[in-house]
## 1
Amino acid sequence: MISRRLKPALTKSAVILVAGCCLASLPSFDAFAQQKKAKPITNGGVLSGELTALRSGPKKKRVITYQLTSEPRQLPPPSGLCNLETGPETFQIVANSDAEAAALKPYIGKSVALKADELSCAQSAGQFSDAIVTKWSVLTKH
């Protein structure tokens, strides 16, 4: 049994030891910043990643919204980083017609590459992603 005099000293030592181990195991800030650095993308550049579909809106007027999850990308000016440190990772793909929606449908839940002709940052609360691709074309399946 530990005496009362040793108990507070032992507790402080244990806390310092645990804190030191936790700090030593964390990567440095520089390593983390370099790891998550956003690659730039320009209009006409290629976005690749997993495509998902989200249903939103009232039951009778449901709209399917497509979202591409990619590595962090830095958008061309004036959009820049979309007020994010690493650049957007989620891109809302806007289907302007039934033909565009049909082109995306086979890729839901799969990896796809899109040529992004027009990119911008999300600006309203109804948008599900960090950035929006309004003009695009499917290149290939990965």
Note: The chain has three helices and seven strands.
## 2
Amino acid sequence: MINWLRIALSFAVLIAASLLVIPIQLLALRLNWRLRRKLPRYWHKATLRALGIRVHVHGQLDRNRPLMIAANHASWKDILVLGSLADVTFIAKTEVASWPLFGALAKLQKTIFIAREEKRRTGDQVSEIAGRMADGEIVVLFPEGTTSDGNRVLSVKSSLFGAAAAALPEDGEGGVHVQPVAIAYTRVQGLPMGRFHRPIAGWPGDTGLTESLLGVLRAGAIDVDVSFGESVKFSRGDSRKHLASQIEARLRRMLLAHLRGRHKR
């Protein structure tokens, strides 16, 4: 009974935060106010608190620009976690725009949707990414291309770093800074997350959003460790495969350090 009361209270907080933030965000998007970049962060923070997800940060966001964050991807929760830490823009596949709830939320944050199979639209998508980064926006890429179970880093797809190449200055000077960020779900109710609870970290393809959300709420309290690694500077003429290899290695090292309890809080 108490558990269901807590879940009901969490939903009430989520609804209240959304009713407060969404109308202002819609106006900010319509008038292209810079507030549109900052406002989602407060919604993400409120949502994490309502869900009982506590974020522990290690390292710091690179101050160099243009900046792209390359993060491992386990679940929809990753969006909330990263969105609560910085004013970021996400890159997502076009299908996400039509998903219930997620699609609407993604549009409110002015997510960049890319159609990987539609080559004729590549130019416009690349131009938007380049323009947003040139304007100082921090773009988040999930280079694995899909979600995992939260226990490992999948192979990083070098082709997805075309977004970084698109933002390179035309004069050939400077470069794009790509910062690896590892997201590790480590504890449930203060105890190390064992095999029984690991499904809470990921979002398997056969699990619906409602079921996944209720699983998080029933858990009561989840700790997530976020590590900001050393950035890789990507310049004109550099290999995307080499960039992908460096990012994958750094993500894997940081993630495993947290999952194995070797990283000090």
Note: The beta strands are 53-58, 67-71, 88-93, 112-114, 138-141, 175-188, 191-192, 222-228, 232-235.
## 3
Amino acid sequence: MSLSTQISSNLSLEEFLNLPETKPASEYIDGRIYQKSMPQGKHSILQTRLSTNINQVGEPQQKALALTELRCTFGGRSLVPDIAVFEWSRIPTDENGEIANKFESYPDWTIEILSPDQSPNRVINKIIFCINHGTKLGWFIDPNDKSIMVFQPNKLPEVKYDADILLVLDMLSDWQIKAVDIFSWLKVNS
């Protein structure tokens, strides 16, 4: 089922959050429930490798944490970005000091990877919503076009290709990655 397929409506956000989780995850957007696409090969490898690379840079010095398929509820929506990156100081914790189960805030960096059956505009709309609610950086990765559209508050999006260096969160600025580096992960025999 594609992200553009409406599953249900007429539920409040609270009612939606009380429903059992679906696989793949469902999202609550403007009073409607949409089920995300089941990740396929290209999507999955990019999601896995990118989150691993971000965590290799961000975790050791407690700068940032990348989490995959994490439900983030804020601004009247409940979204599940492919990768949600939180600055370390913004990671919610429970009474035991452990990472919380519920994230009721926007990610600092949201990353979406386009799947073949997804509507690009609907995915871009999610990134823009995040940016408008406090997210500092958004990436829209298109594996077929080998491009990454970069979103920032109060700026027009930029599309990056090939050897273009990609913008990352300020606290990770000592890490540089290019569009070509990300798409090289699609090759299984290098």
Note: The CA atoms of residues 165 and 176 lie 7 Å apart.
## 4
Amino acid sequence: MTAAGAPTAVTPPPGPAAGYGGLPGGIGISRLRVYDWLAADGLRGGTPHMHLTCSEGYAVTGGRGAVQTLTAYGFEQTTLLPGALVWFTPGTIHRLVNEGGLTIVVLMQNCGLPEAGDAVLTLPPRLLADPAAYRAAVALPEGGTEEELERAARRRRDLAVEGFAALRGATEAGDLEPLAAFHRAAAALVRPLVGAWRDRWRDGAAAAASATAAQLDELEKGGAGHLAQARVRAEQPSAHARFGMCGRLDVYDVG
């Protein structure tokens, strides 16, 4: 007991059902203000790209715009207005179009892996075929000024729009080989990273699922020990207005 007579808080030892401490299901989250930079096709917005192992979702919080998507099933454009919830699976090439003040809360599988490596931009084939050339084309200058970072981000966006336009044109004409070639090139580019991605998955989504399994086992046996492990966590963004693929990002460290 404390001097005031209140019970002393005791932290129970962690058990197998203690739970996963990250966001529900091992997701990642960021706040996005979509670029309003004008592209060669007259649209304003972000950089077309694809994720290879992660689903991604958009919860629209302000403004208006659209997300253009390209898969083997064809091209689609989905309107984005406040309150809209849109998500897509790995392999979906996506491009955000900003028609005025578009802001989004982005939900990402695998603890935010889409912003930590699981993305390949739709650059022209000449740049996808050479890993060094690709890295140079998508990199932002480390320690660069705001102006230098913006120029580099716009340059890679414009290259990706060029490649996206070619892929869309071929797909709509019934030729799926350029899209399949992009898939192959993307897989080759990320292959050296897969081991680290597996570690991130194991410590995130897989750990969250395992914790739920252990909790169900405990409850099925009539136990409730994991409930004493309850805890609360709160975070502010760990970075503000970072240059991302689709816009300026506020990012959270929730792994």
Note: The helical segments are 109-112, 125-128, 131-138, 146-172, 177-190, 194-203, 205-220.
